[in-house]
UniProtKB/TrEMBL annotation:
Taxonomic path: Bacteria, Bacillati, Bacillota, Bacilli, Lactobacillales
Entries under Gene3D superfamilies matching the protein: N-terminal domain of the delta subunit of the F1F0-ATP synthase
Family membership noted in the UniProt record: Belongs to the ATPase delta chain family.
The protein's name in its UniProt record: ATP synthase subunit delta
Source species: Bombilactobacillus folatiphilus
Stored PROSITE patterns: ATPASE_DELTA
Functional summary from the UniProt entry: This protein is part of the stalk that links CF(0) to CF(1). It either transmits conformational changes from CF(0) to CF(1) or is implicated in proton conduction.
NCBIfam families per UniProt: ATP_synt_delta
Regions crossing the membrane: none
Length: 181
């Protein structure tokens, strides 16, 4: 059975995170993964080039050596492992899952807030504090989305939890209640 990139990302990301944790290098390895992902963004097909048949093994190894040049020994060994198992095309999925594990371990939460209007800095700070308190987070990364259709209030999404305090949602509930009575 062939694994998809997300499953590969979870397996390798977890293994790398556990090893980095044993070495007390979680943040340093995350920083290296982010830097390598930036290289992948500059050369969008790099992962495929390093895994498919376009280049010889020697040419691919030379490219990998350039990527590994300034990496820590942990990252050098990890990249070589990915190369040997032809998994370098999954680096983005690995980094994403590693980031998820890092955030969980460090109590960092991502929250998406939908508002009818833009929020000022004070409102954003109060919202981050409230979300941190509600979810027990040390830090909250906030993404604001503007959607005038919600009319007012907020819709807050943290992970798979949604708190819908929008005016549009309240009106819809009131309308349904009136129709059902």
């Amino acid at each position: 059975m062939k694994l998809n990139k997300d499953e590969i990302g979870r397996r390798y990301g977890r293994a790398l995170f556990e090893f980095a944790s044993e070495q007390a290098q979680q943040k340093a390895i995350l920083d290296e993964l982010v830097a390598i992902e930036q290289i992948y963004e500059q050369v969008p097909d790099l992962g495929n080039i390093l895994t498919d048949a376009r280049l010889s093994s020697l040419e691919k190894q030379s490219l990998l050596d350039l990527i590994q040049k300034n990496a820590s020994s942990i990252m050098q060994h990890f990249l070589q492992l990915l190369f040997d198992y032809r998994r370098l095309d999954c680096l983005s999925a690995i980094k994403d899952f590693y980031q998820t594990l890092y955030d969980q371990a460090d109590s960092i939460y991502d929250a998406t807030v939908t508002s009818a209007i833009d929020l000022n800095t004070r409102q954003k700070n109060l919202l981050m504090q409230a979300i941190a308190q509600q979810f027990g987070a040390k830090k909250v990364r906030l993404e604001i989305q503007i959607n005038p259709e919600i009319m007012g209030g907020l819709i807050i999404r943290v992970g798979d939890q949604i708190i819908d305090g929008s005016v549009a949602s309240r009106l819809k509930k009131m309308s349904q209640a009136l129709l059902n009575s």
